[in-house]
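FIELD: query
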Amino acid sequence: MTRAITEIDIVIRLCLAFAGGGIIGFERSFRRQVAGLRTHILIALGAASLMLLSIWLPQNFTEKIGDPGRIAAQVVSGIGFLGAGAIIRLGSNIRGLTTAASLWLTAAIGLTIGAGMYVTAITAEILALVTLIVLHKVENKLFPDDWVKKENSK
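FIELD: result
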């Protein structure tokens, strides 16, 4: 049996979601992407809040209220609509896929923090930063912009 979520748990989890969304959002803002700091923070906070609600409902209502995982599932599918808005097609180029993916990941991190899965959230956060910062530099070395432009013009 899990212990009931306390108000201090809620505050800690929401603050961690704020930080988790902020870290990824800062990187996106630094790269001048359309969805930046505030967007990522709001998504992480919203996802964490909904996960907390998913946990809180069955703990506070004795009658059967359904599957608490449904709210989290709706976050996962619903964030796709927001991510789709970040994807832009410019001629033969598509921009915003990484931003859309970072929005989706930020929602997942918010859900894991809301569920109290801190190790999962921290690991995902670190791997996301490695992907967005370190692999971006590796990718630029292996595939310079002029090479991409030459390949697209053929």
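FIELD: remark
The beta strands are 88-90, 93-95.
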